[in-house]
Amino acid sequence: MARAPTAALVAIGLFWGSLAGYMPEIKARTGLSDVALGATLLMSSLGAVVATALAPRMTRLLGHRLLPTYGIALALVFMPLSLAQGPLALGGAMLLAGLLVTGLDIGANLRISALESDSAAPLMNLCHACYSLTFAAVALAIAGLRAVEVPVTVTLPALALIALGLALSAMRGGRMPAPVPEPAASVQGATRVALWPLILPGGAILFCAFIGENGIEAWSALHLERTLGAAAGAGALGPFMMGLVMGLGRLGGQAVAARLGAARLITVSAAVAVLGLLMLAAGQNGAVALAGIALGAAGLAVLLPTGSSLIGRLGAARAGERGRTLGVSRAWMFGMLGFFAGPTMMGALSEAAGLRMAFAVLALVVGLILPALVLLLRAGRHGA
Q1: What is the model's pLDDT at position 383?
Q2: Please, what are the domains in the chain?
Q3: Mean pLDDT of the chain
C-alpha cells in the first residue's frame, strides 16, 4: 500500500548515508577547510527552502508522478557529487540535492498522510524506519568499502543505479491523492491564515526534532574520538548506532502509535530523547556515550513521522486536502531549517564551549518540543 513513498524514503537514505560515509574523501578531494566545507554544504538548505515553497504547486502539477520524477532526478545527482573537484561543483550538487531530497521527502510524507487517512493505519513510522535502516546499512557498508580503498567514483554511481530503480518502482506503487484544484486567491489567503496556528507550532516540533537528529548524526563520531578518546574510526559507531536504533524505534513506534496516539507518543519520545542527549553529554566513556546515543535515537525516532502525521491530520480537519498539503509542506519548510542548522549550531557551540556543552544545549532544544506540542493541540481544538 505504501510502496511508492517507502521507495522514496529508501532512496533518501541511500543518498545521505553515502554522503556521510564518503565525506572525508570528498573533503580531501575538494581541498576545503572545515569552515569552507560547512558553508558549501549549507547550499542544500537553499534548495530545501525552494522545494518547500514549491511543494503545494508541484503536488498539483505532477500528482502521482511527483515521487518518481523527483526520485529519478535525485539518482542523477549522485554522479556530479562523485566527481566534484572544487567548491563550486560540490555546492551546485548540494543545491540540487537539497531541492530534490526535500521535495521527495515532503511528497512521501503527504502520500503517507493521505494513506493513513484512507486506511486508518499508522504507516508513517513504518515508512520512516526504512529510511533510518537504509542510512545505517549504507554508512556501515561504505565504512567497509573505504577500508579496502574502493573510491567514491565507483560506489556512488552504483548507488545511483539502485536509487534509479527505486524511483522507477515508485511509478507502480500507487497514486498520490487526487490534485486539489487551485482555489481563488481569496480562498488561498483565507486557508493560509487558518492554518498558521497549526503550521507554527508544528514547524517548531519538526525543527527541534531535526536539530536533535542531525546533531547526533553529524557530531557523535567526533565526540567519541576527540572528547572520549575512542580509537580512530571507532567514532563511526555513533552514526551507525543512531541509524540502527532509529530504524528499530520507528518499527516499534508503528505499534505504539496505534496504542498511545500521536500526542502521547510525541510527549514520551521527547522526554526520552532529552534524557539520552544528557547522558551523551555527561558520559565519561564510550560505552555510556553509545548508550546515550541509543536512548536519544529511540526518543527521536518517532518525532518526525508522528509529528508530520499529526500536522497532516489537523490540517485536513481544518481545511480539507489542501489543508493537509499546505500544513505539512509549510511546517516542513520551518522544520528543514533545523536539519541544516543543527550541525552548524553544534559546530559553533563546540568551538566556544566543547561538545559536552553542545549536546547539553541540544537536549534543551529538543525539550522545547513539549510546549510546541501543547500549542499545536490547542490550535487543533480551536479549529475543530
Answers
A1: 55
A2: 1-179 (1.20.1250.20), 184-384 (1.20.1250.20)
A3: 82
